[in-house]
Specification:
Length: 123
């Protein structure tokens, strides 16, 4: 099998934060399902940015934990990323039973409504 090394380097270099998030959550939560989606392209950021993420984490570790506690768990795990490159983090934290009862899906993220000063001022 032939590997396009240049393409692999570009892909891996542009997924640094996404890979860190995936590794940390996999290591700490042993999820039965995990999606880490870079939604930065849906926002007013430069191409290749890693600043807006959606996380769908399905883990037995969430059993008997409130939504607030579940989110705190992830926020603590990703504290360095949240303090730095992550601007927005959408969290969907479910137990396996909750995941199955939702048809193994979550809602799509809403479209970005803008956020630059120019757009707000109508300039």
């Amino acid at each position: 099998m032939s590997v396009n090394v240049k393409a692999w380097v570009i892909i891996s270099a542009t997924m640094i934060i996404q890979n860190k998030i995936t590794y940390k959550l996999t290591d700490a939560l042993s999820p039965v399902h995990l999606e880490v989606v870079n939604e930065s392209s849906m926002h007013s950021v430069p191409p290749g940015s890693e600043s807006h993420f959606k996380v769908v984490a399905v883990s037995d570790r969430f059993q008997d934990q409130s939504l607030v506690i579940r989110h705190r768990m992830i926020n603590e795990l990703l504290a360095a990323e949240i303090a730095g490159p992550i601007h927005a983090l959408s969290l969907h934290t479910l137990t396996p039973t909750e995941w199955r009862s939702q048809g193994k899906s979550t809602e799509d993220s809403p479209l970005c409504l803008g956020g630059s000063k120019r757009e707000k001022d109508g300039q």
